[in-house]
Amino acid sequence: MSLGALAVIAALTLALALYVAAEFAAVSVRHGQIRSLAQDGSAIARRLLPTLEDPHRLDRYIAACQIGITLSTLVTGAFAQATVALDLAALLERAAGMEPVAARSAAAVSVLVLLTVAQMVFGELVPKSLALQFPTRISLITYLPTYWSSVLYRPFISALNGSGWFLLRLFGLSPGGSHRHVHSPEEIEMLLAESRDGGLLEPDEQHRLHRALQLSRRTARELMVPRQWVEAVRLDTPPEEALRIATTSAYTRLPVYRGSLDDVVGMLHTKDVAAHFAEQGRLAPVEALLRPILRVPAGVTADRLLGFFRERRGRLALVLDEHGGVEGLVTLQDVLSELVGEVADEFKEPDPTPERLPDGRVRLPGHLRLDEAFPWTGVRWEAPGVATVGGRVVAALGSVPQGGERLQIGGVEVEVERVEGRSIAFLLVTPVSVSQGTEEA
Question: How many structural domains does the chain have?
């Protein structure tokens, strides 16, 4: 058994490993990382990037890998049978005294088994594992040999791809598929959780990225301050009263309405009140200080709302229902709080938060969002067009309740603790776990 034959087999196995690694690296590498390397001056990354971003070029690149894998496997098997198997058969005849036919058969089977195991381990499993662990590095290392192979195999690639596309069309399938990985928001959230568990993301980083993904699911109705809690100014408010409101309000921008909140005519910026008084030495009527106010539909998503504020250079918008009535008010801070968490305001009293009581019940503020109530109630309260727990109770009763009224929602006992105006200020709920424990006791 000559060393030259073994060297040729090793070289062919190395070629097989190169094509396997190139194929897996090409379909698993992140395009953003290659684009970043190309921008940093990597010549190979600049050449590789167009191949990854063009589905047809990537198809040809993958086809070159597959042809290389097939040819490497076939040539290695044929060469091994023509050299190593013959030498092994002669050795078996001399050393074991086997008949020529039996010796050739045993040598052929032995070489086939050993060669298959060697190719699977060194030519497929090891390079595949390396390509999946280090896709960027492997894709750059294997690009040039694979590219020149695609040039060499171009006639075969055209014929084979054409045949494959013809068969796909016979079955009514489109051949225009891509090798790129496309992930849904749910899959991205799973990837973020896995990255956090693997130590690549801090819990705070994973939480912020999770919030960013949720922006496309939150609507202005869920983020807004409900209508009954909107602080606004009447158009006919006397200048002295407007000055008092401007100096005592926790807000710098206040809607101005005529008659009712459904007829908002603009916005009063408290800075304008102070600036006019400082410049003119007298107070101006509210109408003279009006600024335009933005309006958005209640169903607009938070990510689009953020873009809307950026384009219009605004920080506050009225939230309108399908009939044009005012449902509430949403600000840029509301959207940013959804993204980075609650942002404290030194002029504004902190909003009430859920409170667990000694008897096991929980006090929930009426403006608490439904999706935030689950950890406190133990069940998910859902209702079309309802964003808060107070709104959920009103929807269940069909009217604004009185303080002390009781009901059950989703198996959870609810008591209306306090009502302010036409809205529920606080609820007392008995979480599912507490009520079940009481029944068992």
Answer: 4
